[in-house]
Amino acid sequence: MAPLPGAELVQRPLQLYRYLLRCCRQLPTKGIQEHYKHAVRQSFRVHSDEDNPERIQQIIKRAIEDADWVMNKYKKHS
Predict the structure, then answer these.
(1) Number of domains composing the chain
(2) Is the whole-model pTM more than 0.85?
(3) How far is 32 from 48, CA to CA, in rounded Å?
(4) Does residue 77 have a pLDDT over 80?
């Protein structure tokens, strides 16, 4: 289960970035939201020079799985 509708439509890095920031807005507190927004931005910068399409798809898949885990973690605690 994806954290937000539309995960299956994410194909490009910018789409992933926007999707993950939307996920952050669903988190329970401002502090937690800012923590994960920072992590998303930092990861986006780290991988910005990636040009291998296969590797980009791996990163997208993993990021969506990680977002799912985070969203479920906070869903259980709220």
Answers:
(1) 1
(2) yes
(3) 24
(4) no
Domain ranges, residue 58: 11-47+54-76
Per the listing, tokens 């937000």 go with 4
- Determine if residue 6 is left, alpha or beta; phi over 0 gives left, psi from -120 to 50 gives alpha, anything else beta: left
Average pLDDT value for residue range 67-71: 94
Give pairs for 27-36: CB < 8 Å, separation 24+.
27/70, 27/71, 27/74, 28/74, 28/77, 28/78, 32/74, 36/70
Distance of alpha carbon 10 from its chain centroid, rounded?
10
pLDDT tens per residue across span 34-48: 999 999 999 999 999
How far is the C-alpha of 28 from the C-alpha of 50, rounded, in Å?
Answer: 32
User: Is there a domain that residue 64 lies in?
Assistant: yes
In a domain, 38, yes or no: yes
